[in-house]
User: What shape does this take?
Amino acid sequence: MKITVLGAAGGIGQSVSLLLKMKLPAGFKLALYDIAPVTPGIGVDLSHIPTDVAVKGFTGNDLPLALEGSNVVVICAGIARKPGMHRSDLFKFNAGVIRDLIATGAAICPNACFCIITNPVNSMVPVAAEVLKKAGVYNPQKLFGVTMLDVIRAETFVAKFLDRAAGTIRVNVIGGHSGQTILPVMSQVGGFEFTDEEAAALVRHIQDAGTEVVDAKAGNGSATLAMAAAGYRFINAVVRGLMDEENVIECAYVEGGSQHSRFFSQPMRLGKEGWYKVLPYGPLTQAEKASLEAMLPTLRDEIRMGEDFILKPE
Ligand code: NAD
Ligand code: LMR
Assistant: This one.
């Protein structure tokens, strides 16, 4: 199996590539691509780590070589936020990056699973979907927006709040990946009933966590290391599904699983052909229902922005 990371010289790209080189099963291939000319060197650097994952870095016109025969394409190419910016401020630049990378992916490895990390995720996935559709190769079960960082943040903050060991709590996060569209389903965290105030404070922390990192990095980018950990967990789940492992379940932002909006994040089963069944996230409290209703106009607008970028270019 072959995994390709696009944007591999960046903060997320380098860290997630390191995790993949260290942890993928023996025999896997890892291809790295970035417009930064250092990328072949990053490949050489990683190749000195003693695991049986073959790694090679590409740049310039070699994107097709990086994508050739790929089963999973991870996209973290594009610009990141600075303090004072919203994720939607990245739209203009990053939509062009996603359009061009996905167009090449559609031509070279149309059957791959495409996992989009680049922000704003809520709009970049619709951009990718429309490009794949135009190329006649769109398979909604193989296109994912990676919302896993919200899940690991929720699991970390909730475990800390409950004084439980890290990694012992599971939290589903539904909706999308920006502001109020990030909705952790606190009412379904097993073994504990939060008061409305406790749940609201935790939800606020999870929704604001990206901005917390952007502000703390003070103009030097956004979350990279926790994103790499989240990205690795998600890519690994996609790979385990492709290898026909049973019971692989994670949250992701996909088309076709929800009545709320064209794209929506929720837990799903992953299998040999990508995701194949969305799973219920349990009954919501009145407050959660209200939050879900309140997010939908924003989520739908952000989806439309992505669609229009391809369908109604200026
Ligand atoms: P970064 O600036 O460190 O790296 C981005 C990389 O993309 C750079 O190496 C750059 O050369 C490369 N790049 C730009 N245009 C390219 C192109 N056309 N083809 C190939 N490579 C290209 O940024 P980062 O911190 O790694 O973040 C990357 C993206 O991920 C940002 O949009 C950021 O907002 C997003 N992000 C998403 C999540 C999430 O939860 N989904 C979390 C954190 C960051
Ligand atoms: C995050 O949640 O950390 C990412 O989406 C990056 C950002 O801009 O906040």
Remarks:
- The longest strand covers residues 263-271.
- Residues 148-310 form a domain with the L-2-Hydroxyisocaproate Dehydrogenase; Chain A, domain 2 fold (CATH 3.90.110.10).
- The radius of gyration is 19 Å.
